[in-house]
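The freezer alarm interrupted the setup, so I double-checked each line after restarting. Inputs confirmed:
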Amino acid sequence: MVNAKAARSAVGSASKWPSDVYRVLKAANVRQMFYVPDAGHTTLINLFLADPDIASNVLTTEEEGVAISVGAWLGGQRSVLLLQSSGVGNCINMLSLPVIARFPLLMLVTMRGEWAEFNPWQVPMGRATQPALEAIGVRVMRADKPDDLAETVEAAAALAYEADQQVAVLIGQRLLGKKKW
Amino acid sequence: MPRSKTSKPGTLARREAMAALLQHRGEILVVTGLGSPTYDVHAAGDRDDNFYLWGAMGGAALVGLGLAQAQPDKSVLVVTGDGEQLMAFGSLATIAVASPRNLTVAVIDNHHFGETGMQMSHTGHGIDFAEVAASCGFAATGTLRTRSDVDKLAKVLAKPARGPSLYVIKVAAENPPRSLPSRDAVFVKNRFRAHLGFPVG
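Predicted 3D structure, all chains:
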């Protein structure tokens, strides 16, 4: 069990977009959140972990979150999957399920390997992220400016939960800033 | 120390075991893993509160987790095979950490990949899912080999638990005639959600 107080105190004020996105997802009545940690998602993850109305699941691999999301919708709840671009590669076959059964799916993907990247190992999957998602049938949206992100997530959530679409929002590495190393 | 190369095969007939497992089912929601477990549950009776997987290998127990979290007042039973569960080995860690009190995973274990030519699986080589689940912290685990074992489990499936449970049901490596549910996943999804009172479409 994650200590809610510790999680709350870890919520930084480095950037406003995580709290904006959190508000948008709460307004969309998201009730479950699944994640493989990523530095870019830290603040948003901590906001959810501190929320007693959200069931949060830490995953061993990102595809688990795709399957849990399907179960959540079967049981009447909306959810969101937070992952890094490298994790998209782990999800591909599991995405068959929401695609063929037309389950709403909302993934927020922090990008690596595309902007001021220091680690060459992030580059191949960064390059493959959008084509791989589109090849399996997931709609891709993208934000590169902090001011656009919350609105993009709001639109993506509507597409997912009102129009039964499978949607990934790519959060550009430029928006996230250079990783401190 | 190297593992023993084999483990003791099951002798239960899988269809009989499934009928026994579901005999007191009541309101339990059921999710099935691809291949024979999907056919076995369908053969025991097609129902609105069954959600069958025809693909997405490794997804069954996790679909069960999301459902259990969304419906904490209902019992959820995942029926899957050893091969399907092996593809989601890490899911046992994720489920144990989540610790839902209303989720039971039944691994119908024939020690083989039955759909693809009966190649021996890891459980045939000694990997023991009940031990793995116990190590992860599941509240209840066990290995069932007889009809009376299954009859006993069937009676406790809907009872409140301290956390998730996982039972391995050892069955014979056989392929009974297929009993096929609808492959239209949208239909199966909508039927399931309508059963729970959610709007469809």
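Quick read of the result. The radius of gyration of chain B is 16 Å.
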